[in-house]
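Case study 2.
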Amino acid sequence: MHRRSIIAAVAAALAASCSPAPAPVTPEPPPLASDPAPPPSAPSATTQASAAVAPAVQPPAFAAWTGVPAKDTFPAGAEPISDAEATEADKKCKPLQDALAAAAKKIKASSAPEAVLQALADPPKVKGVDVPRCADLIRRDLISYRAKTIESEAIQQLKRLAVAVGSGLDRQPRTFCPSAPPVPADFSTLNAVPLQTDQKAWDHVAWKCLGFSLATPQYFQFRYEIDEPSQTFVAVAKGFPVAGKPAVELFLRGQVDGKELKSVTEVMRKQ
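Prediction:
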């Protein structure tokens, strides 16, 4: 991934005065202490016979999902500029960047990058600048920057869900929290703008078990599903990090053993 260009810095500079500070980063799911294992006992003849005829546990559908690491990839519609293009923008596009930053300050938008993108709809004429070329570089850089910013929040919330699963197993009585319905329930409500979800949507017993809710507007729908027989779970975030482009699904899977959270994958981009 190329170094952070001066183009993204336009949005960052505006964000410093127009946007709230980012939420603190959720830590990686920590290893949870387990109880000392009791000494093994010899299986009885009945147990051995039952095991011999017991049907195999069928893996859940989410066990077959494939993906690539979300942190290393971009969603559809985001075309990050290359190092060479970033250098080109630094050398040739600075006057247009300054003009766009000034225009963005007069635009009411949900974020600084969004304001600059709106200003790019009719970019100012700047003498000595190839405006179409520079506008294209700036637009691509900002769309990629904005998409990764939106996705990073979803990634942190998925990690937070994994921590919540472990916390349920760490308390008494130990609880492998049940599956939770998607919030918001209607995915289409996220198609245009981030949604401020009614807090009652998080009142389901499963979300209460996890101690999970969101008070800020959502770009992603969140859901959580478990498979009791395999003692596995999946946490999913589905949304539109790039407006007008296909929805993105990010997910992580985990394995428990009834007493502790044994393993968690990194957040993946579903393919």
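The helical segments are 6-18, 45-53, 83-92, 94-104, 112-119, 131-170, 205-210.
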